[in-house]
Amino acid sequence: MRVFIDTNVILDVLMKRDPYYSDSAAVLMLCGSGVSECILASQTTDIFYVMQRSGLDATSTKAIIKTLIENLKVVNATAADVQNALASEMKDFEDAFFASAAARSKARYIITRNEKDFRLSPVPAISPKAFLEI
Questions:
Q1: Nearest-angstrom CA–CA distance, 67 and 51
Q2: Model confidence, pTM
Q3: Cβ count near 32 (within 10 Å)
Q4: ∠ CA(112), CA(113), CA(115), 5° rounding?
Q5: Where are the domains of the chain?
Q6: pLDDT in tens, the chain (134 residues)
Q7: In the CATH hierarchy, which fold is given to the domain comprising 2-131?
Q8: Residue 105 contacts by C-beta under 8 Å, 6 or more apart in sequence?
Q9: What does the H/E/C string look like for the chain?
Q10: Are strands 2-5 and 109-111 parallel, antiparallel or unpaired?
Q11: Measured between alpha carbons, how far is 61 from 7 in angstroms, rounded to an integer?
C-alpha cells in the first residue's frame, strides 16, 4: 500500500513533538513492511528549513535529509501537479499540490495531522493514529 506522509508527521518524529511523536514514529517504522511511504522532493526543503530554525546545524540536518531519502520513496513533482493544484477547490495551494502528487502516484492515503485541510483532496487523509488502526 502506498501512502504519502505529510511534513507535519515527519517533523513530529524529528522534533519528538508530544503528544504526536509515538503514533507518527510508528507510522514511519512501517516502511518496508508492505507499506510504501512517499514524500515529495519539495518537502525536503521545508524539513531542512524547520530543522535549521530549531537550532540544528547544517551537517546534522543534511544527515537527517539523507536518512529520509534513503528510507522513503521520494516523488518528483510535475507541471500537471501544479496545474491540478491551481484548479483545485482546496484552499491551501501547498496542500492541493501535495494531494495532486499523491493522486498521480496512486497513494491510498495521505497521513497527516491536518485532515481537515485535505477534505477536498482526491486522496483520503487520515491521522497517524487512524492509519495504525487499519
A1: 14
A2: 0.93
A3: 9
A4: 75
A5: 2-131
A6: 999 999 999 999 999 999 999 999 999 998 767 788 999 999 999 999 999 999 999 999 999 999 999 999 999 999 999 999 999 999 999 999 999 999 999 999 999 999 999 999 999 999 999 999 98
A7: Rossmann fold (3.40.50)
A8: 2, 4, 38, 75
A9: CEEEECHHHHHHHHCCCCCCHHHHHHHHHCECCCEEEEEECCHHHHHHHHHHHCCCCHHHHHHHHHHHHHHCEEECCCHHHHHHHHHCCCCCHHHHHHHHHHHHCCCCEEECCCHHHHCCCCCCEECHHHHHCC
A10: parallel
A11: 15
Is residue 116 classed exposed, middle or buried when 0-12, 13-18 and 19+ CB atoms within 10 A define those classes? Answer: exposed
Calpha distance 127→122 (Å, rounded): 16
Rounded to whole angstroms, the Cα distance separating 32 from 71 reads 9
Cβ–Cβ < 8 Å for 51, 17: no
> CA 101, CA 119: separation in Å to the nearest integer?
16
